[in-house]
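Hey L., structure's done. Input below.
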Amino acid sequence: MSAARAARGKYHIWTVGCQMNQADSQRVAGILDGLGWEETDAMDAANLVVLNTCSVREQPERRAHGQLSLLGHAKRRREDLLVAMMGCMIGNSRQLDELKRKYPVVDLFFKVEQADILPRFLEERWTPIAGEGCVDFADLGAPRTIGISERLPVLPMPLPPISPAFAPEDIPTTRFDADPASASPLSAGRGAGGEEPRTSGPMAVNFRPGARELHYPTARRPGVTVRQPTAWLPVILGCNKVCSYCIVPSRRGRERSRPVDELLTEARTLVAAGAKELTLLGQTVEAYGLDLPDPGDQDSQNGQPGCKADLADLMALLSAIDGLARIRFMTSYPRHMTDKMIRQMAALPKVCEHVNIPVQHGDDGMLQRMRRGYTLAEYRALIERLRAWWPGVSLSTDVIVGFCGETEEEFQHTLDLLEEIRFDVVHVAAYSPRPGTLAYKWQDDVPLDVKKERLHRVEQAQERIARAINETYLGRDEEVLIEARQVTNGEHQWRGRNRTNKLVFCPAERPTSSDDGARVGPGDLALVRIEKTTPWSLQGRLITRYDMRPALSAALTGIPE
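Output:
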């Protein structure tokens, strides 16, 4: 049965973790939209549930295990439910085997680089019955309890080649892999239409984590729309830093920059679908381009010297896209942010004045234990250059408390650093050991109650700092990209962000000022006069909506050296 004839169902993507996970979910949603599937906010109403997991901290992993348990119960009651799992919990072969053994409820394990497998997976597992899509166990000769309590032998089934529209020829490692010890396959027999038998045991896509040929799925079909005026654009995958506490390199592989042409094509597609703001993503986003060919290399297609673009060069090219109003980027790594990048980005009108640049700790000894690769003197010097060359830039950072061996004096150095630099936002987390990291072998010797107390002290200090910073916005007119309408305590509000990434709220009624008074909606740029502030947001009244500034060719010239 071809995928084109299969009845479609509803899908729900459950996402935890970082912005890269959110981007991966956006990409999977685009693929499913292109297949004709319909998104639902209710997991109970979904025929396909995709769990996008995170292993960076312990709590998101616990939440994923809880969801898997609930889905196991749901699958006992429902015959039309498929479950897929992706994200950082999908580790190496040993970890994958353990997941398949523990959770036979999962029909497919995959990483985002293999998300193009979804059309083939759904074609194999999804069959229409009486005009409604569901997994037709009866027609395929399998018990209704399949995938829950049955343990039948696996029937070998060669997988036909995946359509080139979804899997380019340069992915030789992509394949289905059924585990005889954990699979719950369909019994032998043919379907109602006489098609070949299908297996229903857990499927997994295997790949080499460090391989350069890993492909990030880019196929987007006509009719795919973005769900809000902001969208994610991953530009570099993986990470080479191997910080002692971090699981990301082992789960997402080494750094791999996506080609410029591919990124420009995808960005235009997102903008055409309704995105007004793109956030360029990478675990260390300024590393973009470092692994691309050197300028002296000969281009194999035209024999001309290659062009090695860095992140700022990519931003300049993206700025020329008509309809794109704003460009953001995260997450930064101190040693990769060059002076050239700072000056170039500050000169591009579409690049927003906000930098997320994790420091992680305020003590040099702790940074060395964390294997962060820079000193606080280097970090301070970078902050000084950012503020000097990029007027009005806002700064956010990440901090870990309670890392192995952290003393009270070392923790106090973190508080001192926050008071000194005065970040706009601080994301703070208590350290939790992650299997597979270097620090997992060390003694986790800071008691949990001490970790919680230190985390609370960081939150208190940052609340006071953020309150003072946000009060400076009182009376100012801020350019706000309206993202959504919400109702709070019975009051309708527009929610958006200004250029420095502050959350801004304003009443959703028609403005009464002497300006044009045009109504606004998601995707519009508006001026909001700030009348109230908190440590977490700005509130004001709508002054006017105005047309989005056109793409300025001047933005691509006159950039300071």
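The domain at 477-545 is CATH 2.40.50 (OB fold (Dihydrolipoamide Acetyltransferase, E2P)). The chain has a mean pLDDT of 77.

-- N.
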